[in-house]
Design brief:
The protein is mainly alpha-helical and 282 residues long. It is built from ten helices and no strands.
């Protein structure tokens, strides 16, 4: 069953925070440390995470379909459909960021354990250097030679492995994959003070009406990064599915206080250092 994210998920998270805070409080009563209240909160959290990633994955699949339709027949209508689908699928993923920051399946980078590295950097890295991907106005050479799309000698093949390897290869802003890469490929460079970018659909045409070079490579790039979002979210979604020998099973098997600490760490880190420091202040 899907969650109505605009209302149910924030309310559910607020309730979980309150319950977890109470459950984690140390009042000297050891019997409460492993009591049913804590276990119930942990189970509810796992169900919520699974539902959220399930909806994020469903949205990513919708986006991939819209991108495929746009590439097959570039037009104002198919480009608009792809953009609207991107905006719709971004919402559930954004809410899932509360499940980060504690070495879970989304952003694990602890080489001391046997959990695969999390794909968060491949999904959500930002800000990106637009000229690393495609042409930009103001970088004259980039219109012809700039960006992975316009450098066939340096990047003769555009596929999932190449773009994943290129992500972050030359610095924090050398972003080649994820939601924001798709965003740039759909909207183009943002040069407006009153709205988003406005890339013309003709950047993807291959006939006389085309407005940019390397159209086939641009289409291949867009198709690749869109499908990569689906692949990477599938990995995270599978890790939280019920009834499997996966991270969710390990999470539920933890001492309740340990699991509760991870829950609070994720939500606290997102609302504190990440949102206020890394995003709003910057």
């Amino acid at each position: 069953m899907k969650i109505a994210f605009r209302t149910s998920l924030p309310i559910a998270l607020t309730c979980l925070v309150s319950l977890a805070s109470v459950a984690c409080s140390d009042n000297g009563d050891d019997a409460k440390d492993t009591g049913p209240a804590q276990e119930d909160v942990v189970k509810s959290y796992a169900e919520l995470v699974s539902a959220n990633y399930g909806d994020a994955l469903a949205g990513a699949k919708d986006l991939d379909k819209a991108v495929t339709a746009f590439i097959a027949a570039p037009s104002e209508e198919t480009l608009s459909d792809a953009r609207e689908t991107w905006k719709a699928c971004r919402n559930p993923y954004g809410l899932s960021e509360a499940y980060r920051f504690y070495q879970g399946p989304i952003d694990n980078d602890d080489t001391s354990d046997d959990i695969p590295d999390g794909p968060e950097g491949l999904l959500n890295s930002w800000p990106l250097d637009e000229s690393y991907i495609d042409y930009v106005v103001g970088a004259k050479d980039a219109i012809v030679n700039g960006g992975i799309i316009n450098l066939p000698d340096d990047f003769p093949t555009i596929d999932a492995d190449v773009l994943s390897e290129a992500n972050g290869a030359t610095g924090e802003t050398s972003i080649s994959t994820g939601y924001h890469a798709v965003e740039f490929l759909l909207w183009g460079q943002d040069r407006s003070a009153t709205g988003p970018g406005d890339r013309p659909y003709t950047d993807y045409l291959t006939d006389a009406d085309a407005t940019a070079e390397n159209q086939d490579r641009r289409a291949q790039y867009l198709a690749t990064v869109s499908s990569l979002i689906v692949d990477n979210l599938t990995t995270v979604n599978d890790a939280w599915k019920d009834g499997k020998a996966n991270y969710r099973a390990d999470f539920l098997a933890m001492p309740p206080r340990e699991a509760l600490s991870k829950m609070l760490l994720g939500m606290g880190s997102l609302s504190g250092a990440e949102l206020s420091g890394e995003r709003m202040k910057v």
